[in-house]
Amino acid sequence: MTEFSWKDVANALSLANMILGLFSIFCSFCKKFHCASWMLLISFLLDMVIRKVTRHLNICCKSGAELNDFAVFTTCGLASALLLGVDGPLNGFLAVIYVLATSFRLCFYSAAGTPFTYKGLPCPYASCVLASTSLLTKGNTFILSCMASLMVLFMMDQSYYPHDEILDSENWKKVVYLGGVIMLFLSPFSLTAFYCLMWSLSYIFFPDALWGKAVCLRLQQLRN
After folding, report:
1. pTM above 0.85, yes or no
2. 3 CB contacts (<8 Å, ≥6 apart)?
3. Strand partners, 118
4. Cα-flanking dihedrals φ and ψ of residue 130, to 5°?
5. Distance (Å, rounded) from C-alpha 78 to C-alpha 96?
6. 112-134, pLDDT tens digit by residue?
7. Burial class, 29, CB count within 10 angstroms (exposed 0-12 / middle 13-18 / buried 19+)
8. Which residues pair with 162 in a beta bridge?
9. Of 81, 77, 19, the residue nearest 46 (C-alpha)
10. Are 131 and 40 in contact (CB under 8 A)?
11. Nearest 5°: phi and psi at 119?
């Protein structure tokens, strides 16, 4: 495929990701949080494909980057925050804080300054945690509020997280991704949600030990 064709593919995938976020928002307004969470889990997996295609381009496309950032904000910010519900003032306030934290993370933490790393927890992982928790707890607002508060802290934290690059990394990471895709469409929601939750939490709490070995090797090669 030509470079222009790959740009079209990347933009189409970003647009699909944004549509998933909009459908999730619609489902949340209709009180169908089960469907809203399902959309966010699909978006979590699709985002990794988008990053794969973007890396394949190996170029900087301003319009495509802006579209992808807006799609991530729609899905991982607005749609994820609405899983908390806006029935009461506290939930509404926390939802606003979550959206602000996502936008702040996207605007100011996108460039970590250190090669192959993110500064602050990437938004898709925070969104996956909320969607999985919503499915496992059947939308328990107290537990969701606690998890959302924790995700805000991780996104605003200035710790460094490795570029996962699952589709361009070790084989076991590709197996993890393929397992997520298979379970998303063929397994019960509860089992899929637990799988995605464990996947995301392992990245959050063990970024270097599990997911950062390839990054450490690359940094050593750069220094040498």
Report:
1. yes
2. 57, 59
3. 161
4. -65, -45
5. 9
6. 455 567 788 999 999 999 999 99
7. exposed
8. 117
9. 19
10. yes
11. -100, 115
